[in-house]
User: Which sequence fits this backbone?
């Protein structure tokens, strides 16, 4: 909320009540995604009654109608009342593009992950603040010490997380790979590149560069099985970037990696990269950066709390990332704010 409340907000706390209800708004969208409502309304005839939606989703008519009406109120669905009083529901353009599985910029898997994993962890936020550690034990009965063993606790959960990561670059991938001109880097390695979604953006932007995704063997296997596209030109290599030998390259990309780990682990990883990086090469960090005052953006502050709940890391201001890079042997640190969720930080060896 604003630091100085208006008199009207003190008389009746509209904004505060909006904040109170925010979790309900999220869960309405998440539940509609889980039920497949946006996908259903994408297929012809694209306009259905509440009863038709309920039958297709194996849900109650009364509950479905309330959910659909809430989505209309949120401007994610349209409704048209026929002469006989029948209400026909259809997707908005935003819903078809971002919430249906087949949407051009689908964030469906982001919603599913937030609903089925993130939502459970966030229920333990007060405990996370008290304890200063992630909450996998309370939420899922999984020991929290090995972060990615908890995240990849089953094949189903691994696929869910990888689908989330794949969707992240639908919105931000092009912007972060174009934040700096990377055409001069011949061999590029995307460390922890997961499904290869960001590597795909890099090969499109820099077709003369060779791009390799380096990730854990199980992740690489899953990526090849579920996410590899016929025209992809990047390669996969299996390994643990904390322990295994890293491939020699001109540029190393760490996208949403550094924020997962403690400062000591970050420096250790960056030093390993600096040791094998070719002279004149560098590293590109892609992270959601806080303001230097750490007073915003709110979205990034929330992401930092999410790191507390799910990892051993945090979101940081750009100057802190620059400090980690310099401590690890890199120089000439440059920051590019994209104006979207993720920013880019480039440093040279």
Assistant:
């Amino acid at each position: 909320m604003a630091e100085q409340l208006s008199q009207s907000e003190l008389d009746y706390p509209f904004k505060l009540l909006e904040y109170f209800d925010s979790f309900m708004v999220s869960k309405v969208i998440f539940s509609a995604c889980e039920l497949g409502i946006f996908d259903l309304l994408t297929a012809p005839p694209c306009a259905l009654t509440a009863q038709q939606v309920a039958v297709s989703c194996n849900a109650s008519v009364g509950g479905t109608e309330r959910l659909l009406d809430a989505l209309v109120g949120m401007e994610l669905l349209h409704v048209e009342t026929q002469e006989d009083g029948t209400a026909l529901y259809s997707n908005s353009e935003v819903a078809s593009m971002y919430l249906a599985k087949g949407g051009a910029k689908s964030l469906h898997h982001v919603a599913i992950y937030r609903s089925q994993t993130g939502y459970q962890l966030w229920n333990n936020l007060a405990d996370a603040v008290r304890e200063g550690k992630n909450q996998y034990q309370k939420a899922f009965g999984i020991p929290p010490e090995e972060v990615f063993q908890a995240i990849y606790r089953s094949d189903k959960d691994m696929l869910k997380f990888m689908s989330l990561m794949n969707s992240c670059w639908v919105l931000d991938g092009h912007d972060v790979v174009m934040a700096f001109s990377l055409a001069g880097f011949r061999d590029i390695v995307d460390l922890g590149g997961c499904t290869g979604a960001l590597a795909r953006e890099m090969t499109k932007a820099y077709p003369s560069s060779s791009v390799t995704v380096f990730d854990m063997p199980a992740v690489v296997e899953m990526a090849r099985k579920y996410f590899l596209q016929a025209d992809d030109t990047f390669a996969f290599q299996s390994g643990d970037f904390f322990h295994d030998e890293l491939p020699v390259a001109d540029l190393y990309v760490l996208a949403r990696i550094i924020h997962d780990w403690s400062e000591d682990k970050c420096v250790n990883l960056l030093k390993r990269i600096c040791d094998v990086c070719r002279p004149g090469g560098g590293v590109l960090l892609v992270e959601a950066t806080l303001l230097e005052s750490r007073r915003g953006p709110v979205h990034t502050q929330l992401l930092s709390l999410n790191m507390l709940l799910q990892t051993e890391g945090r979101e940081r201001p750009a100057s802190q990332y620059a400090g980690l890079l310099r401590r690890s042997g890199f120089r000439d640190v440059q920051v590019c704010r994209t104006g979207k969720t993720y920013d880019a930080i480039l440093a040279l060896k």
User: Anything to note?
Assistant: Residues 155-177 form the longest helix (23 residues). The chain has a mean pLDDT of 95. The chain has 16 helices and nine strands.
